[in-house]
Specification:
- With 268 residues, the protein is α/β, with parallel strands linked by helices.
- It has one domain (2-263): Alpha-Beta Barrel (TIM Barrel).
- 31% of the residues lie in helices and 21% in strands.
- It is built from nine helices and ten strands.
- It has helices at 9-12, 63-70, 94-106, 140-147, 161-168, 173-185, 203-213, 232-238, 252-263, and strands at residues 15-24, 32-37, 59-61, 82-86, 110-115, 134-135, 138-139, 151-155, 188-195, 219-226.
Amino acid sequence: MKECNSRTNAEAQRLRIHSFESFGSVDGPGVRFIAFVQGCAMRCAYCHNPDTWSCHGGELWETADILDRAERYRAYWGEKGGITVSGGEALLQAPAVADLFEQAHARGINTCLDTSGFYPAPSDPTPTDPAPTVVGGLSADISRLLAATDTVLLDIKHIDPARHKALTGQDNAGILALARRLSELGIKTWIRHVLVPGYTDDEPSLRALNAFLRTLHNIERIEVLPYHTMGKYKWQKLGIPYRLEGVEPPTAESVARAEQILREGCSC
């Protein structure tokens, strides 16, 4: 998405924010202050926040102002809590998120990155918009961000490339490469997988994903998130046809079975 790579230098120093949540309990260790960023290059069929897709919505925030707002709730975080940046897709604003996390660490705040792992390279680079410098298979901006990240929540949509693209509109090669790099760097990672009946819940796919996860050495937790339709009204409000019309949430039994398969042989 070229529009997501066309931020001005001034914008790159600030975060484009969709919304905040003061007391997140399922968005990383402990109680978290969550900043939801604006902009995403994926078009997941089950997305419950399609209003975050556009890279031109939301409001621009200075990183210090975000941390000042977050610290109002610091007394509730306990030993494990802190700040989480979610989306949208935080990797599309890697320089500004890196700055936020670096400043957070300077204040003694724990950082967590909630990501799909997908970050398109700039399209048609020019002398004033060059292709990113690559460090260890990652852009310098992404490497800098990961260096300031305590925990990553990585949502792997599908292990099969073709089915991943059909479900999200994007390829998963870079996502799996990022997962491997997180393992190499030893960054604590929670794996998340949304269970969508008829799309992501078949046993061969779950076992293939498990085989991939067993090659990683940094996984602290594996979570299966049941598909839901709570964001369907947003698609209707935006005039976007909902692609999973008629698909029901998975049963508790199917969620438990998926969790069992994905966790087999993993040390998490």
